[in-house]
Amino acid sequence: MRRYFIFATAGLGLLMSSIDGSVVAVAFPHLIRDLGTNVLWAAWTMSIYFIALTMGLPIGGNLSDSFGRKRVFLFSLVLFTGSSMGCGIAPNIYLLIVFRFLQGLGGASFLPTASGIVSDHFPENRTTAIGLFSGIFNIGNIIGPNLGGWIVSRYSWRYVFYINLPIGVLLIILIMVFLRRQPPSGRRHMDFGGAASMAGAILFFMFGLNFIAEGVTFHSLPVGVLFLLLCFYLVLLFVRRERKEAVPILDLALLQSRPFLAANVLNLVMGIGALGILAFIPYYATTVHRVSTLMSGMIMTPRSVGVICASSVTSFMLVRWGYRRPMLWGLCIMAASTICLGGGLRLWGFAAAR
Fold first, then answer.
1. Where are the domains of the chain?
2. What is the reported pLDDT for 327?
3. Which of 3.40.50.10300, 1.20.1440.20, 1.20.1290.10, 1.20.1250.20 would CATH assign to domain 2-253?
4. pLDDT tens per residue across span 208-220
5. Helices 164-178 and 2-22 sit at what angle, rounded to 10 degrees?
6. Of 101, 173, 181, 346, which residue is most buried, by most CB within 10 angstroms?
7. pTM for this prediction
């Protein structure tokens, strides 16, 4: 029975991290008004969280193997809970971005560490347990916008972060009570330099775009170009380092594989085109269509349900369909739906009327 409590506790931690990845989008209008900022800096509250996840995920598993899963999971919970408090009391957008970065670092260790914990306690049903565990992310994507819309409409955007405090404290207590401390499996080499240079390149790239997007002035343009040059330098540094690393976070030999490279380029394009748009749908709904904050969160639910249904069907039919057709179908559906979101239906109706 104890292992089921551990499964539920680890799953709740992962759910909390998943919810915080999407819950902030609903609070954009309130963030902008209360902190006196603009949409460019408000968007950083989501971007910096995923940058921290990208930086922390490759080394989270190695940390749990080197220092023990219980110790790393507890540290992650403490960091996530403490930074959630920092996000809630942040007096300006800049400190909020800093605390969101720390929150993302705490959440980055949840997935590899919690997956390892589940694998250790369900060795006979490891595949099934991990499959159920991975589905928690999709559930979080459904709960996040709806929960955020309800909290912001009833209370304040700060309570989006405050709600993590009792949950985090409860999880810390449960982990200390139910999870036994296991000896580390051995020290592993961790490519901190590679993770830092990769995250730095992404940060400077976004800073450069941010300064240029705020307006091309005598000061902003040189600063933006400088940040882009620093990004280029860190990319070169990252490639050079990964070629020499014994255990790199990215094996550059994989990039020589055309299927691997094509799949990751596709994921990058989809992330830029799809996630970049979806993050601003609640803001668009409240500012343009004047819907309520609660409704703006509910608008995100159909997409999450569609992702769950499509991924379930595709996983069962992948052997029959292969990889190419589902990818092409998905891209076509995404392109058509994005055109409709941008007012394509009105344009087509106007053309037909003429």
1. 2-253
2. 79
3. 1.20.1250.20
4. 887 777 666 777 7
5. 150
6. 101
7. 0.79
